[in-house]
Amino acid sequence: MTMFMDVHHGGMPGVTADQLRQGHDAAVAMEKEMGVHIEHTWADPESGTVFCLTEAPSAEAVTRVHERLGGAPDEIHPVPLSV
Model's pTM, two decimal places? Predict the structure, then answer.
């Protein structure tokens, strides 16, 4: 499986930590069913931008899990290397 960083531009202005946690927890709840693992989620409340780091078999799998949550990402980038 590959790691993917996805970006949602401007869709959540004013997002709070509790709202971000709720969205992250909803994604985690369907991980097994969707064949992905959501590692971490970040947000910038001022711009409404959200970033998610997900381990998945493909970018399409990342899109599917986000669509089930109500919003496909604007960008998905494979992240094959880390230190």
Answer: 0.89
